[in-house]
Specification:
Elements: H1 2-24, H2 31-45, H3 50-61, H4 70-86, E1 89-112, E2 116-117, E3 141-142, E4 147-155, H5 161-169, E5 178-182, H6 190-199, E6 204-208, H7 211-214, E7 236-237, E8 274-278, H8 280-288, E9 310-336, E10 341-351, H9 363-381, E11 388-395, H10 398-401, H11 403-411, H12 413-419, E12 420-425, E13 434-439, H13 444-451, H14 462-477, H15 504-510, E14 514-520, H16 533-540, H17 545-563, H18 571-588, H19 599-624, H20 630-645, E15 664-666, E16 672-674, H21 676-683, H22 687-716
Parallel strand pairs: 3-7, 4-5, 5-6, 6-8, 10-11, 10-12, 12-14
Antiparallel strand pairs: 1-2, 1-9, 4-9, 9-11, 13-14, 15-16
Length: 718
């Protein structure tokens, strides 16, 4: 009988032990390390508070702080001071003298068929005291050239190449004229709109916000709702940073003292066209007075008028005076030095500069970053330093051309390629409750796993809330029968990564794995003066619960990368994604693909996936066995860090050599572009280049397969 009870007791104990292990299991950690990591994360998550998030957010939204401004530079000093008090090591402010941009004056006057003087400013709101701040700028586009032109206006819809094709079919030539375009429908980066207008010979481009995209057609407008009011102006730069980001005068190298600088006339990323953003209040008089043919149905907008193509009747006088030239931008850098592996870095970043107050973009992210650093500093003071070094940066000039992060990445490219584990970016912490997590495919599983450990303000786990958000988004994209929509862990994280934020240099130039985090919602005041403290407290995140959750998530993700025994990469997952990229390329260009045989690429992907699965199995067994020899861990981790570097092509994408990643790139619109060199060659029907790019992909796949097999062999040694 006693034996029976002992056996039963043993089964119960084993069941409880397995249950505890299941609860504490974390990718990349031994059971003992996972239990310790859970304790650290619990302490970390208890530190950020909504009240402190709100206090920091108010500091950063108190005044306009565009890149290069006195206020933005004061905030750099403030961040450095706070980080020193919080206990960060090696806090420095790095100066980069870059080609920057500031407005001096702008005017837009319709001189025919009737007179109208554009306001070019945002009307203050009685409910929002900050909207009355006299430091708020008028309308301006960063990197516009100066000029003075009088010309007819043509309505060119979204300003994409196909829109000009339609105008040509209707006998309208925009050469020497001013084009009026909308920000969206479909979305494309304003810099691509400017480049397209420049290539078409337009004298200038006016970009306005139509209420159909972000105004009253969407719902209630500020101050009664989250959407853009009549006078809201979406500022923004038109830099051609999809060609070369960063300082236009130092393309591919850092703008440090003594650096070589090219003449601005030779700068690929510098526009050569006048540009100005407009509110719909200022665009409406132009649109309602236009002649020409009736615009197509999908060119019509939300204003209560019929949209015409124009071309002759409406004539305007546009004058823009800019102060473009070299000026200092400042990157704040601090770190918590690793207790065991100080020369392995996990890098985190958020940009500081805003077009006005930056309530969402970027100050929500900056507030979350300050609570993250406070929590990390508090843990360090209590003796809980991460195993690896955590580097945190406050970038400058992101809004102008991804400038600060690009210069820093170019300056430290060799160190980063040798030491960096990953980069985690938070641009906008929150504009609403819907989580969007993106990651290179090798880190997607660990991001999904981390989401299980956090609670969403809705009461669900972040994982469940995230999954529900993605299901609703998919249902909206595929109206009708939604029974076939099934979101799994494998397709929860977004592994299609474009450009437009500070991750760009780390992924596309340095060759680091990246993760991007953000909460999203209805947000119609982007880059306007109404994106401020009032908007956040009434619509974006009243109570600052999602700010707090962002600080928690950002920190947990960083700590798991910083403390893992064996880095939590999943290369079988990466292979599966690469296969999807190839399948989507073939499907999207099916009628032309007979000119290109990708069967060998598919075989190489299969081999890479098999090697990834073998390594995953070996890593799981090694972690489950307990303690790991430090020399073996060093070999494995440095080998796994090398995989992302091996996706770099030193020659870069054809035509865009700065962008070196062969799996991830971006279209000129900032939209994601997978297999960029291969895809652009196929779409251009340049089959010789396509074949060359396919061979480059095969070579990288073979290199990484061989690397994974070598790491697996290390694990198999006695």
């Amino acid at each position: 009988m006693l034996g029976k009870y002992l056996a039963l007791f043993s089964l119960v104990a084993l069941s409880l032990l397995n249950s505890v292990r299941a609860q504490t299991a974390i990718l990349g950690f031994t059971p003992t390390s996972a239990a310790h990591e859970t304790e650290i994360e619990t302490k970390y998550k208890s530190i950020p508070t909504p009240d402190e998030e709100r206090r920091q957010h108010r500091i950063f939204t108190a005044e306009p702080h565009v890149a290069g401004s006195k206020r933005n530079n004061e905030l750099a000093d403030y961040i450095a001071g706070e980080w020193r008090k919080q206990g960060f090591d090696d806090v420095v402010i790095r100066r980069y003298d870059v080609y920057g941009t500031n407005p001096k004056s702008a005017s837009l006057e319709m001189i025919a068929p009737v007179h109208y003087q554009a306001v070019l400013r945002e009307a203050p709101l009685d409910a929002d005291a900050d909207s009355k701040n006299p430091a708020i700028s008028g309308a301006w586009s960063g990197m516009s050239i100066s000029g003075d032109v009088t010309a007819p206006v043509v309505y060119a819809h979204s300003g994409n190449p196909e829109d000009y094709d339609l105008l040509r079919k209707n006998g309208i030539d925009v050469n020497g004229k001013i084009v009026l375009v909308r920000y969206s429908n479909p979305y494309s980066y304003r810099g691509f709109k400017a480049l397209t207008a420049q290539r078409e010979g337009a004298a200038a481009i006016l970009i306005y916000s139509d209420p159909q995209e972000d105004g009253y057609k969407k719902g209630k407008v500020d101050p009664d709702g989250p959407w853009g009011p009549e006078y809201h102006i979406q500022r923004g730069a038109i830099t051609y940073d999809f060609m070369v980001p960063g300082d236009p005068l130092t393309p591919g190298w850092a703008s440090v003292p003594g650096a070589k600088r090219i003449p601005i006339e030779q700068a690929t990323s510098a526009p050569k066209i006048m540009a100005l953003p407009l509110s719909w209040h200022d665009a409406k008089p132009l649109l309602e007075n236009m002649d020409g043919g009736l615009a197509p149905a999908d060119w019509q907008g939300g204003l209560p008028i019929q949209y015409h193509l124009g071309g002759e009747r409406v004539k305007v006088h546009l004058k823009i005076e800019m102060e473009n030239g070299t000026q200092p931008y400042y990157v704040v850098e601090g770190r918590i030095r690793g207790a065991e592996l100080p020369d392995e870095w996990v890098v985190l970043g958020n940009h500081r500069d805003a077009w006005v107050f930056g309530g969402v973009d970027p100050s929500s992210g900056t507030a979350s970053m300050m609570e993250l650093t406070r929590a990390l500093g508090q843990l360090a003071k209590q003796g809980m330093r991460p195993r690896r070094t955590i580097v945190v940066c406050s970038w400058d000039g992101e809004e102008v051309g991804l400038t600060g992060s690009t210069e820093w990445g170019e300056q430290f490219v060799d160190d980063l390629r040798a030491k960096a584990v990953a980069y985690i970016n938070v641009d906008e912490a929150t504009s609403g409750p819907n989580f969007h997590g993106e990651a290179v495919a090798s880190l997607a599983p660990m991001l999904v796993e981390a989401s299980h450990s956090l609670q969403d303000p809705s009461g669900k786990s972040l994982y469940d809330a995230w999954k529900r958000t993605v299901e609703l988004q998919k249902a909206a994209e595929e109206p009708g029968d939604v029974t076939g929509i099934h979101i799994t862990d494998a397709n929860l994280a977004d592994t299609r990564i474009g450009s437009g934020s500070d991750h760009t240099v780390f992924l596309n130039f340095v060759g680091m794995p990246v993760i991007g985090l953000g909460f999203e919602g209805d947000y119609g005041v982007y880059h306007s003066a109404y994106d401020d403290f009032y908007w956040m407290n009434h619509f974006g995140d009243p109570g600052y619960r999602y700010h707090t959750l962002m600080s928690q998530l950002w920190g947990v993700t960083a700590l798991r990368l910083a403390n893992a025994d064996l880095l939590p990469f999943d290369f079988a997952s990466y292979a599966s994604n690469v296969r999807q990229f190839v399948d989507e390329l073939i499907k999207g260009n099916n009628k032309d693909m007979s000119r290109l045989d990708l069967s060998d690429v598919r075989k190489d992907i299969d081999a890479f996936e098999a090697a990834g699965n073998r390594l995953n199995d070996s890593l799981r067994r090694k972690l489950a066995s307990g303690a790991i020899d430090p020399k073996l861990a060093l070999t494995l981790n440095h080998g796994m860090m090398q995989v992302e570097r091996n996706w770099l092509n030193p020659d870069g994408i054809p035509g865009r050599p700065w962008f070196k990643h062969i799996l991830y790139g971006a279209r000129f619109t900032y939209a994601h572009l997978e297999l960029p060199g291969l895809t652009e060659a196929v779409e251009a029907k340049d089959w010789a280049t396509a074949k060359q790019q396919a061979e480059i992909l095969q070579h990288a796949l073979a290199n990484n397969t061989r690397l994974l097999d070598e790491l697996n062999a290390e694990l198999g040694k006695p």
